[in-house]
Amino acid sequence: MVVERKRWLARLAAPMRIGLAFASLGLILALVGIARGNVPLNPLSILLALLISAGGWGAVSWAVATAVVDVERDVAEEAQDA
Q1: In terms of CB atoms within 10 Å, which of 14, 65, 71, 78 comes out highest?
Q2: Cα–Cα distance for residue pair 60/56, rounded to 1 Å
Q3: What confidence tens digit (pLDDT) does each residue in 16-42 have?
């Protein structure tokens, strides 16, 4: 079972793995904030805190990682053409 999970994760592109890692970190930080009492104990508030934290961290880190990969690809193509 663990081997299958590693294969699934290895098949993902690097920016997607980075996005998932930071989304997980955002989720953990949101859970810490909920446990410390920074979020009202309303189910909708908790759900929004989790979605905004995980979604925000995941989307931004995925976008930055995708931009880095694209720039590195362009630089490699430019160096190859020169």
Answers
A1: 65
A2: 6
A3: 999 999 999 999 999 999 999 999 999
Nearest residue to 34 (alpha-carbon basis) of 22, 48, 47, 46: 46
3-state secondary structure of 37: coil
- Residues with Cβ < 8 Å from 20, sequence gap 6 or more? 12, 58
Alpha-carbon distance values, 55 to 3, 51, 62, 73 (Å): 27, 5, 10, 27
Copy the structure tokens of residue 18.
Answer: 């980075």
pLDDT tens digit string along 59-68?
Answer: 999 999 999 9
**DSSP designation for 36:** T
In whole angstroms, what is the distance from residue 15 CA to residue 68 CA? 9
